[in-house]
Amino acid sequence: MRKWGSFYGLLQRTYYGFWRIIETSILGTKLPEWIWKTQHIFKGRRWIEEYLESVDHPRRRLLIEKVSLNAPLESILEIGCAMGANLCLLAKEFPTARLYGIDISSQAIREGKKWLERTNVKNVKLFVGKADELGWLEDNSIDVVFTYATLMYIGIDKINKVIKEISRIARKSIVLYEWDFDDFSKGYQWHDGHWIYNYKSFLARYFSSNNIIVSRLPQDLWSDESWKRFGSIIEAKL
After folding, report:
1. % helix / strand / coil in the chain, to the nearest 5?
2. I need a surface site. Which of 62, 72, 151, 236 has the fewest CB within 10 A?
3. The pTM is what?
4. CB of 82 within 8 A of CB of 19?
5. Can you list the domains of the chain with their CATH numbers?
6. What is the largest CA-CA distance in the chain?
7. Which pLDDT belongs to residue 1?
């Protein structure tokens, strides 16, 4: 077992080493974008079923609570909304607010619109869009802008622009549910196919440090060890 365990460990390190080179030095964010856009081709209907099964998971409820602390709210935007599960939960909390979601997967948006219609959610609008292309939104036009495990797929080629744009359009607050760590000299690190950022260092360019709060997620929310170590909610208030 030790022999095969060591061999498996070597294969795993080689695999992630290969993808690290591809993503960090060659393709950048284009690789995870392509994977997400095409996952329905490789997974079929299974990815939709898996997504819907996670709608009521407690890890989403914590995010909803953090966003709701900014009430009263007239508008909310999720960057990387997939089929809109988080927005559906927020719609119940804020039935008169305007809720928007963008995602790069046109298939996820199509399926999300069908699902929202079936569940009779009226105040959520979903669009195909990218996190670094928010020029269609005016400055300070959205009360709360939030993400849920989205920026961990945004590479160093785009993260600065994404944070800048999110900060530009937010009127009250930004809430990020991502992997965060505060001990990186560069402000970032690539880990097992995802990006970990020191979000406070990025957001401090646009917000007072006193208005940025980083809270570690409870250990029992995720079984994944990386989420246990890095999972955080980052709040920046105006």
Report:
1. 45, 25, 30
2. 72
3. 0.89
4. no
5. 29-237 (3.40.50.150)
6. 60
7. 43
